[in-house]
Design brief:
heterodimer, A: about 210 residues, mainly alpha, globular, B: about 130 residues, alpha/beta, four-stranded parallel sheet, 4 strands
């Protein structure tokens, strides 16, 4: 995927988040502070303004700008978390005009490590990591078996959705949901849900 | 004097904490970084950075936060600033701020201001 496609993909993610914002907010109403969808939509709305003037820049710049914009605008936890994820991916792609599937995996690795570091979290705590980590694992496995990019991305989306379902079954130990305790069981994590949205868009656009 | 920064999702809460500290430590360099630019709830990278720059001096800065993204956004601001004398303190925000500002106007070092703020965790109210 070239730099222009990456830019278009990020904008498409923004549109998807905007479409899904009420559902994401509703999820966050039940087990959080009810702002995930609104916050993410606000963040990506600003991304929609900041990114098009950067058309032609390297992919690293596009990703880093997306990350910095999310940190500055989202206002809730997903700002620093997704902000760090995009910024770490941006560092991987500094100066590059093309992104291969292998590059995408390295970006996802860096993004996951960034989210772990920023949120001081890991798998099994009912966070976006419960979608991100299985998704990357599934995509890498699919690719290593010789699957093409589209097939690998679809495997990632499927694993991400399974991750979202898994988050329903466990108790939240991170973020505002952790204050809700046992009552968080039965409800899916908003961050895992929004990540799945993002990966679905990447898969569709590819 | 050590500068103090109060980071909250709520603009009113951050300002309220600042006002509270002025009862006993009116000369302390203290800045509020609460809410987003439009006044809604949330944590603002820019507000936090501006607050730190406003109160930073030779004695450094102690930052108190309410929870969640207040902590994570502050961390990201600190990663982007060159200072080594700006520290985050894990303490109750209102009570810690009162203790920290009193320590600051008393001429305390950054370490002693932080220690006093942390002691707010064990403060008994009744």
């Amino acid at each position: 995927m070239d730099s222009k496609r990456v830019l278009d993909t990020i904008l498409a993610i923004g549109k998807r988040i905007e479409e899904d914002k009420d559902f994401l907010t509703e999820l966050d109403n039940v087990i959080g502070d009810g702002d995930h969808g609104i916050n993410m939509a606000r963040g990506f709305h600003m991304v929609e303004e900041k990114l098009p003037p950067l058309e032609g820049k390297d992919i690293g710049t596009l990703l880093k700008t997306t990350g910095m914009t999310l940190v500055s605008t989202v206002g809730g936890a997903s700002g620093p978390l997704y902000g760090t994820a995009f910024m770490k991916a941006g560092m991987v792609m500094a100066g590059k005009e093309e992104m291969s599937l292998e590059d995408f995996f390295v970006c996802m690795d860096a993004a996951i490590e960034g989210v772990k570091m920023r949120g001081k979290g890991d798998k099994g705590e009912k966070t976006m990591l419960d979608a991100m980590i299985p998704a990357l694992g599934a995509m890498k496995a699919s690719a290593s078996e010789g699957a093409d990019t589209k097939t690998a991305l679809k495997a990632g989306v499927a694993a991400s959705k399974e991750g979202v379902e898994y988050t329903k079954t466990i108790i939240a130990t991170k973020g505002r949901a952790s204050y809700v305790g046992e009552r968080s069981i039965g409800h899916q994590d908003p961050g895992a849900t929004s990540f799945t949205d993002m990966l679905e868009v990447i898969c569709e656009v590819f | 004097m050590v500068g103090i920064v109060i980071v909250s999702h709520s603009a009113m809460l951050a300002q309220g904490v600042v006002d509270l500290t002025r009862m006993m430590a009116s000369d302390c360099p203290i800045a509020a970084a609460g809410g987003l630019d439009d006044g809604s709830f949330g944590t603002s990278y820019e507000k936090i950075m501006k607050a730190i720059e406003d109160v930073h001096g030779p004695d450094g800065v102690a930052i108190l936060m309410d929870m969640g993204s207040a902590v994570m956004t502050t961390e990201m601001v600190l990663e982007d600033l060159p200072y080594t004398d700006v520290k985050m303190v894990d303490c109750p925000i209102a009570e810690g701020a009162v203790a920290a500002t009193i320590a600051s106007v008393g001429g305390g070092s950054l370490d002693s201001v932080i220690a006093d703020a942390l002691s707010a965790k064990d403060m008994q109210k009744f």
